[in-house]
Design goal:
The protein has 113 residues and is α+β, with helices and mostly antiparallel strands. The protein is built from 3 helices and 6 strands, in the order E-H-E-E-H-E-H-E-E.
Length: 113
């Protein structure tokens, strides 16, 4: 029986003014991606604040970054399982552009008839 995969992320609350520099620092600490969440996104950011969500390839790198930033500034969280990888697909459906052209995601059926 295989173990459920766990993906490490750091959540770092900051200000809008500091978010770009902090995102660069997260990449320097080994993040493979950094998402910025603010009041204009669906997020858990506080009013006027920014939440950076940094993904890491492994827990060891994430923990080293957490230690470098400090636990008072960052929180290590895990996403378990792979369902999140395909969740975004539900927002993309076939779209007709003009009479003869359709943009269709490969995972969505489309009847041209």
């Amino acid at each position: 029986m295989s173990e459920t995969p766990r993906y490490p992320f750091l959540h770092v609350r900051t200000t809008e003014d500091e978010s770009d520099d902090l995102a660069v620092e997260l990449f320097d600490l080994g993040a493979s991606g950094v998402e910025t969440r603010d009041d204009e996104t669906l997020s858990k950011a506080t009013a006027g604040g920014v939440l950076l969500v940094a993904s890491f390839e492994d827990e060891e790198t994430a923990r080293a970054a957490l230690e470098a930033l400090g636990e008072d500034r960052a929180t290590l969280v895990f996403v378990e399982g792979d369902d999140w990888r395909d969740e975004w697909k539900r927002f993309f459906k076939p779209s007709r552009i003009g009479e003869r052209f359709v943009v269709r995601p490969s995972w969505e059926p489309f009847d041209a008839g």
